[in-house]
User: Fold this.
Amino acid sequence: MTTIRSPAVAGLFYPADARQLEQDVQHLLAKAEFHDTKPKALIVPHAGYAYSGAIAATAYASLHSVAAAIRRVVLLGPAHRVAVHGLALPGVDVFDTPLGNVKLDTDLANAISYLPQVTVSKEAHVLEHSLEVQLPFLQKVLSDFTLLPLAVGMTSAEAVAEVLEQLWGGDETLIVISSDLSHYLPYVTAQHVDSATVQSIVQLRQPIDHDQACGSAAINGLIIAAQKHHLTPHLLDLRNSGDTAGSRDQVVGYAAIAFN
Assistant:
């Protein structure tokens, strides 16, 4: 029997209506600034589409020249609602979205299940938005792919890098790290903090701490992997909620970064 993880934030972070969601994602992708790059990995924000959708679209639009080759997506996002030690698989067969089902990659799951930092936690995934909000973009940009979603909790950069190494693959495998940047700082302060964070990432300097990026553990692991595989990060977009849909009193920072 197929086990399904149902959408938790459809109608909250993005439209629950399939037609509206498709229109919104297509519109965001069409408006995104084009960057001629061939990413192996992306860092993408995960707020509501009104806030970070335009920045996320910039990341996904950069896949234009490699999308046809991608068959697997390894997706890491921070666990916001349930305490996780290590990295948690969801223990289901399918992630459902208003745009249809995404099949999980059992081969990849089996390839890392022996690692001590990898656990299975349906609870960590049931309400987690950091992974879910990436799926409609992936569904529109890629044609046919399987997914390996991991909720990242308390763990080291080295532990994340070890998992990524097992899943690295070739051109058929895309790695997506879901993370926002600073949270609830005044607009100008956030600009300075986020700019410094992005400079560290682009220069492959870690550790990035949790105050700088909620997905810091996964970002730090990716930096180690990027060094090993000689990837170069490129900043595609850097804005915050004060630039998109919120007040400037307390903002959340968003970056789109491609590694190729």
